[in-house]
Amino acid sequence: MSYDVVQALAPHCVGSDIVKVTGRDGGQAAVLGSKLFQAFVSDHATERN
For residues 3 and 41, what is the distance between their CA atoms, to the nearest angstrom? Predict the structure, then answer.
């Protein structure tokens, strides 16, 4: 579901921001955040070209 939101919003965004996540979950939130940001950059670049 998160990737669907990224694909829908990425072409319309002008910028993005990464916020710091705590390490209390063994790094799971950081991994999810990096995957979503990678998907955002990929979809944003694809729609712009």
Answer: 12
Distance CA 15, CA 27 (A): 25
pTM: 0.63
Number of domains composing the chain:
1
Residue 3 and residue 39 in contact, taking contact as beta carbons nearer than 8 Å: yes
Domain containing 27: what range? 2-14+21-48
Q: What is the pLDDT along the chain (49 residues), one digit of tens a residue?
A: 577 887 787 778 887 777 766 668 888 888 888 888 888 888 777 765 5
